[in-house]
Amino acid sequence: MLALKELDTRRVRRISSVGNTHKEKFAQYLTPVEIASFMAKITMRYFQPSNVVNVLDPGAGTGILSCALISELVRERNPTINLDAYEIDNSILGELENSYHAIKSSGDLNYQILNKNFITDTGAEIVWGVNKKYDIIIMNPPYQKINTNTIYKNVLHDISIDTVNTYSAFIAIGIKMLADNGVLTAIVPRSFCNGLYFLPFRRLLYDNTAIKHLHIFESRKDNFKEENVLQENIIIFLKKTKDKSGNVTIYYSKEKQFSEFLEKNVTPDDIIDNFAPRFVPGSLLLYAGDTGNKWGYFDKSAFGKLGIVLDEHGKMPDCIFFFEPKNWLVLVESVTSHGPIDSKRKIELQRLFNTDLILIYVTAFPDRQILPNLQQKSHGRQKFGWRIILRI
């Protein structure tokens, strides 16, 4: 930890010595040590290291994120670590080299610093199918708008990525470069969570990964306060897998010191206990998934009486209720297990439940902070269908 604190001292020193024009050019806002250490520790919760671990830090800066991760890997198992660190800013390369040189003696570390543009360089490799695969990717990517008719837009189009900001482009490319069951951890703005501009990115994320963990900060100004950045950030932990089963853990803290720390797991029980009595009182529970068993509760007889035949290989929602007074089949999904129900997911559910009953689509949120800028009312008709915000 002493080495990381020294890196943080260098971070603060660099912030004071670099002008705003330089920061804006590279969208360079360096990760504080508290956040880097937290991200590394939670990453290890979802990754089982083998004897060799391939790591990518695509916007390395002074190296504090990858150094924090290396410290955790060495402490857990001390594997051989092969690290690739991309950094486009020539003026920070010396500090990055010093960081890795200082931590190299703590374990079996092989590293290379790539003074290249991460989007254009890896984009070309992905096009030709020669890109590397990584077990862990950890990042604090740059935040810059991607305009149409630019080199970034063209490169991303060539690798089937449609997004509007460099931070989401970094994550999307990272997903493509993850090995199966690999883990990607990123601190990013919350803006990707809603809105049509980020819809293709959310679909890519949903189709290729499972969200394992989210951390939400109440403060907009504390995380990067030395740089006077006012930004709503979250930390997201993704796993490269098609298996969406299992709960998603949601952490909350006021700021980067992680004070007033709260933890919440969203489960089908939360939906049954909180949603049904309030919005569809007296409804019949037909199905409830379980983390260990897809068919945790399944009333086959009731489905039969309703004339519904289910494909056992279909992607089921978390809970299903029948509300007889209105002839509703209510399909509820936790935002943390599947993401919000969008137009693509609605089509999937319509095909899965081929019925004359009225289908009601519900996305359940643990609170109003999971997705920003929602209407401040308990329910409303929106682009993704019916969303119910549950205070669990």
What does this structure look like?
The structure is a single chain. The protein has 392 residues and is α/β, with parallel strands linked by helices. It has helices at 2-17, 20-26, 33-45, 64-76, 93-104, 118-127, 151-158, 166-177, 199-208, 268-279, 300-305, 335-338, 343-352, and strands at 52-57, 80-86, 108-114, 134-139, 178-189, 209-217, 233-240, 249-253, 262-265, 284-288, 297-298, 319-323, 328-334, 358-365, 379-382, 385-389. It has two domains: 2-265, Vaccinia Virus protein VP39 (Rossmann fold, 3-Layer(aba) Sandwich); 268-389, 3-Layer(aba) Sandwich (Trna Endonuclease, Chain: A, domain 1), CATH 3.40.1350.80. The strands form two sheets. It has a nine-stranded mixed sheet. A seven-stranded mixed sheet has the order 11-10-12-13-14-16-15, with helices on both faces. Helix 3 (33-45) crosses helix 4, helix 6 (118-127) packs parallel to helix 8 and helix 8 runs parallel beside helix 9 (199-208). The longest helix has 16 residues, at 2-17. The chain is elongated.
Q: What is the residue-averaged pLDDT?
A: 82
Strand order of the largest sheet: 3-2-1-4-5-7-6-8-9
Number of domains: 2
Low-confidence stretches: 370-392
Question: What is the third-level CATH name, the topology of the largest domain?
Answer: Rossmann fold
Q: Please tally the β strands and state the result.
A: 16
Share of helix, binned: 25-40%
- Order of SSEs: HHHEHEHEHEHHEHEEEEHEEHEEHHEEE
CATH homologous superfamily grouping of the largest domain: Vaccinia Virus protein VP39
